[in-house]
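Before relying on records like the one below, remember that each one covers exactly one chain. Contacts with other chains, cofactors or solvent are not represented anywhere in the record.
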Amino acid sequence: MLGLEFNERGLKLTPALPMAEYEFKSALVGVRKTKSGYSGWYAPAAAGEWELEITLSAAERARVTGVKVNGVAQDLTAGAIRVKGESRVGKALRWELSWG
């Protein structure tokens, strides 16, 4: 129900848990949903630049007002949210989607 799909470029995420708030943690990936939006991390074993694609329901997507990767604001795209960021060994790519 977290809708995780890994590929050579990074991660596709389609969260669909029917809960107002939740958190999932593993050594590789983390996802958190709160009243403020979504956040998480991606920590592959190899350092590199990774692509993160997040597909939300139409209702949730309409609420998104901002996206950050590693603390830096990114441009929002129509439809699925696609961003890029770097990770290093021991330092995950971190992302955040905020609600309006």
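The two ends are 25 Å apart (CA to CA).
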